[in-house]
Design brief:
327 residues; alpha+beta; 2,3-Dihydroxybiphenyl 1,2-Dioxygenase, domain 1; 8-stranded mixed beta sheet; 5 helices; 16 strands
Amino acid sequence: MPTRTGYKPGVPCWVDLASTDLTASVAFYEALFGWRATFDAYGDAGVYGRFTQGGKLVAGIGPTFAPDRPSAWNTYFATGDAESTAEKVKEAGGRVAVGPVQVFDECAMAAFEDPAGASFLVWEPVRHHGAQLVDEPVALCWSELACRDPEEARTFYGEVFGWSARSLTGPGWGDRAEWLLDGRPVAGLRAMNEAPSPPGRRMPSPGGAGSSEERVAGPPGGTPSLPEGGTPSGPDRGAPSSPDAPHWLAVFAVADCEATALLAERCGGAIVSPPRDLPAGRHAVLTDARGAVFGVMAPSPPGGAWPALPPSGESGPPLNGQVTPRG
């Protein structure tokens, strides 16, 4: 399992969980994925934890800003300049929800919403460069935007990150595309044109909350940009988003999609979208014991997983062979 040491700007580089119950969340992911969690205390800035697999960083975890905010998985994209990215977000019609803020000697980060309301974050590394393990079992293998206006998304993310989009054709892909950076796939795009979830199986709010301030965990140090007391404010704060709201989905690689889905249920989670076949492999959408939504994927060999993250262009290793990129 080679260690990633850097990411090109515009590439997904980190995910973290904003949790309403850190103890319950840690127990869930330790049982489901075998992760181990360690926490650091940062005084008034609170606590922030890191999940590891085999001693390598795979994800973060921290408390939500207020106890009434639902749990959420947050997706971060690498940037070389968080301030510049924030300006591009505003110019492209998005909203700056938090920051940019300096997080001690770890990174600079900022939280945004795209024009449709999907939350995402950027990470300008200092000491912490992001996940050390990707494209391996129980590590991040893909990030996918679900939205109702793919053309609007193509324009927005193209202006912010320089991405282009390529439709995925052929049986099984449905209405999906992949985001390309320098000609290589870095993330996915799915049109939310399916019928609403049936009663009793409705998808919880992706991440649960209606705004980035409500959802973001982030390494400690991000809270100074919020109102006094660390809780969000504003006319649209506090209203939960629709169950079918636009969102970024973090997808983790697993060896057996069915077994993982059943184990998630036994651990207190739920199956939002049952395992189904895609050309890339067997895929399901789940919630954890606190309602945070995430995806799992059992790649179909050979090279059947989501396209791998591209090399960092820094000191990171080449693609590790767990998946094979297209393009």
